[in-house]
Request: fold
Amino acid sequence: MAGGIFTGTNPSYVKRELAYQLKGSESKYLICAEDSVEIGIAAASMISIEKCQIFTIDTNTLNADRYDIHCKH
Reply:
């Protein structure tokens, strides 16, 4: 078991709402559908989640990819 906890969000959230939920749940990673990744990136950056901690899912194939592999650490 990876030790992760899932918290789902409403796909109609704006970046402020998503950032609030990410912060409140102490999220370390974000998984987004490809069509909502821009909001995800904006919300994540508001609470210091780096791009390399964001994953996208292709809803047609259910393949997951890391958004950006370049982290600052």
The chain is about 25% helix and 20% strand. The beta strands are 30-33, 54-58, 63-66. Residues 15-24 form the longest helix (10 residues).
